[in-house]
Amino acid sequence: MIARRTLLRSLPLLAVPPLVYASGLATAEEPTPQERKLANRLELWGSYARRTQNLMARLSTRRETSLLEEPHHSTGTLVFRDPGLLVLRDDGRQGSTTLIDGDQLRIFQNGAAPGDPSTTVADLRPAAQWLARRLVAMFAPGDGSALLNDARTHVPKGHGHRLELMPPVGSAARRMIRSVSVVLDPVVGTITQIAVAEAQGDRVVLGLSDHRQNLPDEDVEAFLATLDA
Amino acid sequence: MSGPPSSPADDSPTSNDAGALSLRRWARTWPRAIVTAWAVLVVLLLARVIGDPGVEVSGDAQGLLPLEHRAPDDELLVLLTVHDDALADERGGVDVLLGAASAAAEQLGERRVPLGPPSAELTAWIDAHALYLLPVQAHEALAERLSDTAMTRAVDALRARLSSPLHGLSGEDPRRDPLRLQELSQEHAGRLTHLGNLADMPAELTAAGDLMALDGRTLLMQVRSDADPGVLLEELRGVLPSSAVSAAVVGPGPRRAADRTIVEEQWGRLLVLSFAGLVVVLSLALRAIRSVVAIVLALGTVLLGMLALGPPLDPHGVPLLVLLLGFGCEGALHLTRISPRGWPAAAVLGGALLPLLLSPYPHWQTWALGWLGGVAAAVVLLRLLVPALLSLWKLSPAPARRGFRLHPLRPLAALLAVAALAGGAWALQRLPFLELDRTPRPTIEGDPERSVREHFFDPRLVVRAWSRGDTPALALEHAAEHARQLATLVPGDATRVDSPGRLVLPLPELQSRKRSLEALELPERMDALRDLLATRGFRPDAFGEFSRGAANLEDLPTPQAALEGPLGAWIRSYLEPVDARASEGGGAALVTRVHVRPDSSAPVPVIETESGTIELRGPAVAARRDREGFDDWLGIYIACQLWLGALAVWLGTRSLPTALGCSVAALTAQTAVLAVMVPTGLSLGAALLPALMLVGAAAMIAGARACRSVSQDERFHATGVLLSGLCQAVAGLALLATTHPLWSQVGLLVAMGAVLASGAGLFVAPGMMHLFGGGVGGGRPSAPKPTGHEDTGHEQEQDRS
User: Fold this and answer.
1) Which residues of B touch A169 (CB under 8 A)?
2) What are the residue boundaries of the structural domains of chain A, listed by start?
3) Which of B418, B489, B616, B734 has the highest Cβ tally under 10 A?
4) What percent of chain A stands above pLDDT 90?
5) Which residue spans within B178-329 are E strands per DSSP?
6) Is residue B279 located within the same domain as residue B357?
């Protein structure tokens, strides 16, 4: 039998584990500098994105690829409509349109309709799906969890408000995509640049400007109607 | 009432069979000897069942498939799955899976067979021969695509697509095919690989030739091994990182093992449940514990005999074993004899499944004889052992209660028969079909076979064709011809054709294609393409593989070149051992796997070639063939059964109207049960054939008794017919109470059928007998004073009297 005196003396020791646990929690709750920077970026991004019902912006695209002697440049329009529609349309009939509508991913020439036989369908490509979900999440209202879901993040040092998203190591998307870099406007929180680095060496940079948020529905519908024209 | 009614006439010295063979007389004369012999038999059977070799459980659910259509046992699939919870949030499973696959491949050595060619070698082969692999019919479209206008349009479109951030991730590979010529290759189902479309199978080949799901969570390997799947699995688990990757083996062997486990878990409880049900029914009916014990001992001995000497237990056999108990009670309970000697009932019951000897189902062929043996054993034991035991136990059963006069109603009988026939014909069009290769089985949590179906393909839909030749090169050449013929099945009948023959061509065909391609002036066209690419800002060298491969027509994709090249090792994995197929012609046989669509209602594809019809074999082919002719064969089996049953009844009664009336009653019960199956949601298929035949036999026996009673102007004891039906229904209900979907279906069918059979026997058979000209006194007299009873051996009282 344990003596009463011994028992009474040992009682204070019972408080040690909870204290250690509590201190551990306190330590765990302390964000790292990287986490603080990530939270800052998301807060800045969210200050604009959380109000977005639809969005239209000017788009400039540059692709650096070994297929071409010089980088490919084009201009166009980006249209987003909550919850999951994103259209990147080049100017002119010689350009192409990228349509992301839920899980449907299509690339078709501006002169053709989305259902044309020449349309490239990428619905079943995991890397394309991963990137498409990121692109939609960049403009969709939310707390950023959709953006960070199934992705690694990195906030680079230096000037500019940048956020890097990377596919999970060892995932199917990782074999095709190295990183997606997002640059935010330091004042408004709009996305001004998206850079996609592909694993095979290509790099696509999308520049965004002239953001117009929450346009009348008719304007968006009018733009979408041009896709089938 | 202390027992079933006894027969005053059957065993009296004045009976017609006094001088003939009588089991009951033997039982009364030598009860101790019979019981002693039975005890010795039981000890021997127990020693065999409990000791070595024990109860053999095969678990083979594919027993209905003809042997030539069964999937090969030695071809197994190994499914590697990465655990989601074993990976950190920022880590995917592809690397882990590839590492695990590499470790497994190293352990398996030559037993591992690639599911596809090594991707780098395949790419190089296709790039070098892409245009040769296009059919001549596509050359006109090819010429159009190689025109200046079309090439300009294609290159401009490529440049336009480059602006899309998804372009590099969409699966398009402009370096290998800037003009998208793959679209011309209809015979390759849209892709210049043998794998088919991503929409059909969202997976890709790994560098080693395994299949990986596009989500990077599962990987499929193929193994050729005769080893026990459990041993193979343990071997693999020894080399895999068990914390991150789990392995499972899929194939006929593992499926059999899983079914064996299910049978082993359930057959004992099921038989105990069946016995319990029978004991309840018998106790309530006989109200004589000694009679019940004697019957149960006899049936138990039959069961022991079937376990020791009958076919191995499997998902199809266990229900028949239970039904044997329920239908075997017939021998103990029937009251009115069909004939003076009482054998027609046993003959009808024993021969119920004999028509299935005509069927293509190996399992039912075995059980047709096994059932006959089981029924014979049950009848002999019930007529020999039960009276002997009761004699020793000095049981004196009470005399039979008075029966009633059965009045046949011809209009009612005709009405019921016509209604049932119409209902059966109506039901045949509506009953869902239980496919031959889809034996229902309990849902297994985490079933790896289901994962393979969801992520890759359905192994049950893989059918095979063989191409033979004196040498592997000749076999491959024939396979090339066959593969192109089989490719016409895509996409209507099949989703993909898996054959190395798709990558080569016979030399005459190559010469023909070469002449056609030479007319296209490919070197000049490729020069034009390079110039065009340069003018549009592309680097022509980036498309060098395509342009060089297209311009070079001297490198022919011949079978010999393929066998000697880097794809040779993979191609040889399609060659079957010479001794297996050589005897059927040629020294080498190369297998082509066709993934057919899961539509068993479609006809079996027939592909004619110059050398004859390509024979396809596999479970799906057997299922389609079975479905094509099932209705016709069902009619043949039932007609055979009716004829055999009618013959037995006629031989026993020498009354054609009785035989015909009984046949109509049996057909009425069978068609009525078909009609009732529609609202109860049962399906019809080969797996349920024995249950349907047994319903017919039960109706025929019940009808023959009723006819006998009418024709001999005897009092009819409906209790006997109803009691027989109850025992059969109890066996069905015991099956229905299980969680096995197949057994439940069989049980429900038999339970409903037993009731309908009793009804058809009582109300249809006598009326139809009258319609066919039979009547009171029309049958051959059987006993001096036909009170019409036989019993379970309770003749002691009669003897004493």
Assistant:
1) 90-92, 95
2) 1-30, 33-77+123-225
3) B734
4) 7
5) 203-205, 211-213, 218-224, 245-250
6) yes
Which of B250, B266, B301 represents a domain boundary (last residue)?
Answer: B250
Average pLDDT over residues A126-140: 88
Q: Which of B160, B166, B183 sits opposite A128 (nearest CB)?
A: B166
- Would you call A171 and B92 a contact, using CB atoms and an 8 Å cutoff? yes
Q: Does residue B89 register a pLDDT over 80?
A: no
Residue B552 lies in a domain: no
CA angle A22, A28, A29 (to 5 degrees): 90
**What CATH number is associated with residue B240?**
3.30.70.100
Residue A77 confidence (pLDDT) above 70 = yes
Could you tell me which CATH number the domain at A33-77+123-225 has?
2.50.20.10
Mean pLDDT of B147-158: 86
Give dist(CA B540, CA A64) in Å, integer: 16
Q: A64: which 2 tokens?
A: 């650096």
Judge whether B480 lies within some domain. Answer: no
Domain that holds residue B243: 75-114+210-250
**Rounded Cα–Cα distance for residues A152 and B142 (Å):** 45
Q: Are B371 and B353 in contact (CB under 8 A)?
A: yes
Total domain count, chain B: 2
Which residues from chain A sit within 8 angstroms of residue B162, using beta carbons? 63, 65, 67-68, 72
Say if the Cβ atoms of B538 and A128 lie within 8 Å. no
Query: Are B636 and B744 in a shared domain?
Result: yes
What residues in A contact B90, CB-CB < 8 Å?
151-152, 168-169
Contact (CB<8Å) A124/B161: no
With left for phi above 0 and alpha for psi between -120 and 50, is residue B706 left, alpha or beta?
alpha
Whether residue A147 has pLDDT greater than 50: yes
Residue B202 pLDDT greater than 70, yes or no: no
Query: What's the pLDDT tens digit per position in B671-725?
Result: 999 999 999 988 999 999 999 999 999 999 888 888 887 877 777 766 667 778 8
CB contact under 8 A, A174 and B92: yes
**pLDDT(A120) > 90:** no
